[in-house]
Structures are given as C-alpha cells and as structure tokens.
Design brief:
elongated; mainly alpha; 2 helices
Length: 65
C-alpha cells in the first residue's frame, strides 16, 4: 500500500473510532447519569483523547513506512 492509499483509510478509521467513542461516552453517561456525570465525561473523554492520539501516531508511523 502506498502512502496515498493508507492515509485516507487511516483518517476514516480514526473518524469511525471517534464516532464510536462519542456513542460509548453517551451510553455510559446516560447509565451513570445520577453518579456525577461530569466526572465520568471528563475521565472517559480524557481516555478517549489519549487513545485517539496514540492511534494517530501509529497511523502516521505506518504511513511513513
């Protein structure tokens, strides 16, 4: 796979994962609503940002070869 083929796929995959993360956060926040929802959103949001950041770095290194 050349760089031009991998980069759009990687971007779509990251967008897909971000949408899934938002959905999971929404479900967990609705389940844990009475239990300090702000803290849940902060914790899960932080973990999600870290995971997406790591995935972006992995795809960047993979596209470099």
């Amino acid at each position: 796979m050349s760089n031009s083929e991998l980069t759009p796929l990687g971007a779509l995959f990251i967008i897909f994962l971000a949408c899934m993360a938002i959905g999971i956060i929404w479900i967990i926040a609705s389940i844990a609503g009475p239990i300090a929802p702000q803290y849940w959103l902060l914790i899960i949001g932080f973990i999600g940002v870290v995971i997406i950041y790591v995935l972006i770095n992995v795809f960047a290194k993979a596209s470099e070869g």
